[in-house]
Amino acid sequence: MLTGYDIIYTRYDIRATLASGQTFAFTEADGGFSGIAGGRPVEISERGDGGYEIKSRPGESGFWRRYFDLGGVYDGLLMNFIDGGAGNDADEVKATCLDDIYGADVRCNTGRGFLTRCVNEFRGLRILRQPVWETVCSFIISANNHQKRIESIYRNTSAQFGCAVEWGGRRYYAFPSAQSLASLDEFAFRALGYGYRAPYILETARTIAAEGLPDLDAMGYDEAMSYLLKLRGVGEKVADCILLFSSGHQNAFPVDVWIERALREHYGMEGTRRKLKLSAQAMFGGAAGIVQQYLFHGMRTTN
To answer: Would you name the residues annotated as active-site residues?
Structure first.
């Protein structure tokens, strides 16, 4: 039994959120989830009424409210892009965006209907606000990798080099700091399965250990993107993941194979992944990142 804890009750869909590829720091256990972020352990249990209890150490509930973006309001941002939303005027706005990019023959195809199904199926999906350093490492690891292996590398790195945290009868291992990883050599990372990513994570750890991380939240999207692209192992897609899943840049729009397929099949978009990204950002504006996550989770699960 846990003793001495704060508790948050929410009806947001924590299960869908944790299963949607944003984080690799949680495991499913005892009908719920346990994990650690920013050195703070947490346990999450599902209630019979469809809600979730988020249990944390005393004084740390504010961190978890921000982490799960429990104060964020998405419905107003999504209204223009789903059935029952803003209606024909929004359709006309979207068509105009696509006309500007592709020419008059391209329209939204089945996109509105598919996004509506995704939102209805996973209503309550949240965009996480994770610690930036942990997110940088997670998505360097994620490049050309699959989820189970990413989780294994991330957790083994924590167990090998992170600090142990005892709470509620469990032992958690916090993800190591940039300073801790900067003191290692490339072989230590290769032993954990990083492969060709080993020099990337080492060089980035040393850069951040020496210089610190800027406040990405306070930067504009373009400035924050420019900074991240200077880190070794961070390309545009990884940078968009970092900005979306840690820093509240909701216009970030990572494009992987699932999103590429969604945009081509359901929105009739064409071109390179970069062109698809720019097209989606033009269409969805400040809702782009939220739309992206619903499309991503929907393509992986409902198809």
So the answer is: 237
Structure tokens at 183: 């003191």
CA 21 – CA 41 distance, rounded (Å): 20
Which amino acid belongs to residue 219? M
**Residue 136 DSSP code:** H
pTM (two decimals)? 0.90
- The domain locations on the chain are 6-68+127-246, 75-123+251-301
Q: What are the tens digits of pLDDT across the range 66-89?
A: 999 999 999 999 999 998 764 433
CATH number of 6-68+127-246: 1.10.340.30
Opening angle at CA 17, ends 143 and 146, nearest 5 = 25
DSSP letter for each residue of 141-210: HHTT--HHHHHHHHHHHHHHHSPEEEETTEEEEPPPPHHHHHTS-HHHHHHTT-GGGHHHHHHHHHHHHH
Q: What is the 3-state secondary structure (H, E, C) of 73-120?
A: CCHHHHHHHCCCCCCHHHHHHHHHHHHHHHCCCCCCCCHHHHHHHHHH
The 10s digit of each residue's pLDDT in 92-150 is 334 333 444 433 334 455 889 999 999 999 989 999 999 999 999 999 999 988 989 99
